[in-house]
Amino acid sequence: MGAWCVIHLRFEAALEDAFSAILEDLGSAGWESQPEPPRDVRVLAYWREPAPTGLIEQLRTRLETLAARMGAPAPAPPAAAAVPEEDWEASWRRHFGIERPVPGLVVHPSWISYEVRPEETAIVIDPKMAFGVGSHATTQLCLRLIQGACEGKRVLDVGTGTGILSIAAARWGACEVVAVEHDFVAVANALENVAANAAGERVRIIEGTVEDAPGVFDLAVANLLSSELIPVVGALTERLSLGGLLVVSGILTSEREAVASLLRSEGFVIETSEISGQWAALVARRAQTSITNPS
Q: What Å distances lie between residue 143 and 99, 100, 147, 247, CA to CA?
């Protein structure tokens, strides 16, 4: 019988939205939260056993860093316990339902049937241990910003997670989508979701990084925390055609200007910026002429 590792966390409620992205980044299969008056929230986050090495320390460090950055009190140390498979599987599924992240797009898990209306596009996503079911603000921002930009384009999806952005891009007319993901567990999940949506002719999943993406792209989308985005901006620039479009999210609003400045230094023009709660997204276009540094 399988088992799950459950991590108990308690911190100021204002951190919950931002911390959810950290849980997703660390491969949590799901979590549940309850208010803890007057200002805190109690979170139970789940990983299938064996949990990743050093998970508790990573959670503690990243939660403390987030709290300090946002001026919140120091959180309680995380604690771990194990629960049997049958105690959690049904609870996990209850957290996922039908999502409508942008107008005209419906996202649902395979265990929930959905009758698609003529004006809708439906995507089947089983999240397992990867990020992206359409409910998080950063995913919604990315979907909204690429929705009208995919037709006939060659698209790069960096950090694909469940594959939701790649599958949506293919449904919205992209001629080819290359999705890169460094986490082999997420790669397996993305491949399953691509198959479930019969998108394999247009969507290619690669286990690796931006550097492993072949060729040049008209549109790139990266739903990454700024700490993951900043080191790959140079590689992203190299893989975008002159005049190509870059959509980035996963950026806290407090970090938006720093990321925008970095993109400008790489020769991008910021076309628009959107905010949802604590999260920001940027749409930037690579200059039509390349910038060369003097030797």
A: 13, 11, 6, 10
